[in-house]
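Q: Please design a sequence for this.
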């Protein structure tokens, strides 16, 4: 589990030893690049679409909850094949996390919700001097889905009595070995359109996801399935991406075809649109049928 998110060329990742900083070159700034391209009469992309153009003013909040429609599946234990004393404490392997549904509220955990393209960015979600911790214990990532901003330091920790390699896929590829009770700082440099898979080849059942975004317009649902994204641009159409690792859409995008989802213009790419008024707090509740998940 995961705890707690270009104008110039980007350098290749390097690792100089345990406890050293993983450097990937200068941080990309897609918003600045888009402004430069616009001034030159060109176009830009962020997350795979045309650069957004500001048409509104003010700020607003989007919050909501994802609820499972029906009886959720029971999670099976991970197939722990080695180092049983460390990876199966008490003789019991930890349960898989491919679809976590709260028994009390029906809330769906680990749904990533984020703005695809921002025309304006409130100062509260600008990239800043923040850090996040990505720990692993009992051969499990302690935060299953982590969203961070590009340029944010992620402390990759290992709280186990055995070594792990942390294999990050996608645009910010890296694969360092983190020794027992050690840590390595990692700074993602490129935005991902969808969460990137994180694995450990030493313990192949381990899996988590990392979503670096250019700004803080993102959320990952908690145990009760709720999320909130504050200070979104108001007065203009926003396109929101929704993802879950078991989603049946492209790249595991979460595709929902219920009437409430259709009212939001939900697409077969796991996206919906919303226009918020200045200072509005809009609530959405989405019931997700079992057919929206694979497996």
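A: Design:
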């Amino acid at each position: 589990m995961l705890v707690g998110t270009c104008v110039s060329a980007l350098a290749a990742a390097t690792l100089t030893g345990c406890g050293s900083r993983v450097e990937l070159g200068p941080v990309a700034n897609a918003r600045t690049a888009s402004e430069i391209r616009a001034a030159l009469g060109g176009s830009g992309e962020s997350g795979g679409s045309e650069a957004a153009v500001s048409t509104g003013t003010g700020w607003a909040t989007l919050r909501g909850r994802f609820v499972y429609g029906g009886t959720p599946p029971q999670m099976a234990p991970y197939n722990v094949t080695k180092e049983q004393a460390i990876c199966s404490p008490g003789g019991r392997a930890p349960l898989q996390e491919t679809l976590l549904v709260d028994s009390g509220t029906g809330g769906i955990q680990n749904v990533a919700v984020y703005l695809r393209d921002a025309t304006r960015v409130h100062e509260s979600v600008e990239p800043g001097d923040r850090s996040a911790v990505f720990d692993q214990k009992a051969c499990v990532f302690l935060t299953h889905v982590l969203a961070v901003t590009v340029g944010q330091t992620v402390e990759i920790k290992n709280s186990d009595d055995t070594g792990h390699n942390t294999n990050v896929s996608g645009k910010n590829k890296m694969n360092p070995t983190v020794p027992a009770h050690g840590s390595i700082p990692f700074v993602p440099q490129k935005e991902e359109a969808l969460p990137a898979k994180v694995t450990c080849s030493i313990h192949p059942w381990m899996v988590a996801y990392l979503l670096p975004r250019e700004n803080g317009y993102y959320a990952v649902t908690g145990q009760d399935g709720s999320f909130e994204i504050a200070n979104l641009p108001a007065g203009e159409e926003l396109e929101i991406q929704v993802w879950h690792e078991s989603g049946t859409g492209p790249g595991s995008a979460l595709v929902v075809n219920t009437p409430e989802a259709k009212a939001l213009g939900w697409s077969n790419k796991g996206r919906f649109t919303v226009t918020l008024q200045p200072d509005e707090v809009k609530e959405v509740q989405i019931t997700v049928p079992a057919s929206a998940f694979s497996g």
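Q: Thanks. Anything notable?
A: The longest strand covers residues 59-69. The radius of gyration is 20 Å.
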